[in-house]
Amino acid sequence: EYVLGAAFAVLSTGAPAQTIGFSQIGSESGWRAAETTVTQQEAEKRGIDLRFSDAQQRQENQIAAIRSYVAQGVDAILLAPVVATGWDSVLEEAKEAEIPVVLLDRRVDSSEDLYLTAVGSDLVHEGEVAGQWLVDNKPEGECRVVELQGTTGSSPAIDRATGFRTGIEGSDDIEIVRSQTGDFTRSGGKEVMESFLQAEGGGDNICALYAHNDDMALGAIQAIKEAGIDPGDDILIVSIDAVPDIFLAIAEGDANATVELTPNMAGPAFDALDAYLTDGVAPTKFIQTESALYTQGDDPMAEYEARKDLGY
Ligand code: GZL
């Protein structure tokens, strides 16, 4: 009845989504801030009335926002789900109301028939790219790695951990010796890196840091410098997002590599919703965005200039 209901909606209106509710996680990282900016710009371009809510990284606030959008009778809902579990009942309510839900940049464990599609990167592949970079660039011999994980229970934290472990399988010398969440924030990355350095008696026994996002890496770089250690040399640093400030760090030699994540998840999401609500075309369940690796040899200042005004 969901598809029939949507088909009826198409017959009765035939118009693209006019009012869309966006349940955003928060502004925990530069990348998240850019995603919000780009989503608002894409909505503006399409004449969409975008209703926005910032959940301050709390799932209960996202669930309340979705319920509010359902009560408002919006045409569609965008959801960037802070964690992967606990969405079934609220997604059922949106389905009952025949309001299509599109997931942005993270996945949920709920059944696929509870959302129209998901727009995001291959999060496991991103971790594999980071791991392979370390295999290709580590110093001779043993390489003890510390890992700053993303928000516990989020699909990027789960998948980027899995992918990195696969990526380093190419080298017996690499060992992950400490792993802890920094919650995708700069302050979290700094605090946890300080504790890693303390626990390891300084940086001599740490060969590399793998951070699930650039903001945690940037916080960790501060901690490493304050400990009198040279980031990017004494401790290699690889992370993910490709935010402008990581390119400044790479240009300074304080970081080594980042894997790009586009902040434009909304463009493909709005296009899929338009096709669905106007012509009843159901999209594939996953619309994948590309990831590219940037290192010190890739003109980091040009990459910084290209991104610095995009709302990070
Ligand atoms: C990944 C996205 C992550 C970013 C972080 O798709 O969910 O959330 O990598 C952000 O910067 O906090």
Question: What this model shows, in words?
Answer:
Helix 1 (2-13) packs across helix 10, helix 3 (59-72) packs parallel to helix 4 (88-96) and helix 7 packs across helix 8. The protein starts with a helix and ends in a 5-residue tail after the last helix. It has eleven helices and twelve strands. Helix content is 44%, strand content 20%. With 312 residues, it is α/β, with parallel strands linked by helices. The strands form two sheets. A six-stranded parallel sheet has the order 2-1-3-4-5-11, sandwiched between helices. Strands 7-6-8-9-10-12 form a six-stranded mixed sheet, with helices on both faces. Beta-D-galactofuranose binds next to helix 2, strand 5 and strand 9.
Would you kindly provide a brief summary of this structure?
With 312 residues, the protein is an alpha/beta fold. Helix content is 44%, strand content 20%.
**What is the overall pLDDT average?**
95
Which distinct ligands sit in these coordinates?
beta-D-galactofuranose
The low-confidence runs, each spanning 5 or more residues with pLDDT under 50, are: none
Q: What structural category characterises the helix and strand content?
A: alpha/beta
Spell out the helices and strands N to C. HEHEHEHEEHEHEHEHEHEHEEH
- As a percent range, the share of strand residues is 15-25%
- Rg calc: 21 Å
End-to-end separation in angstroms reads 41 Å
Largest sheet: 6 strands, parallel
Number of helices: 11
The number of E-state strands comes to 12
Domain Periplasmic binding protein: 20-276
GO cellular component, one term: cell envelope
Organism: Sagittula marina
Keywords: Signal, Sugar transport, Transport
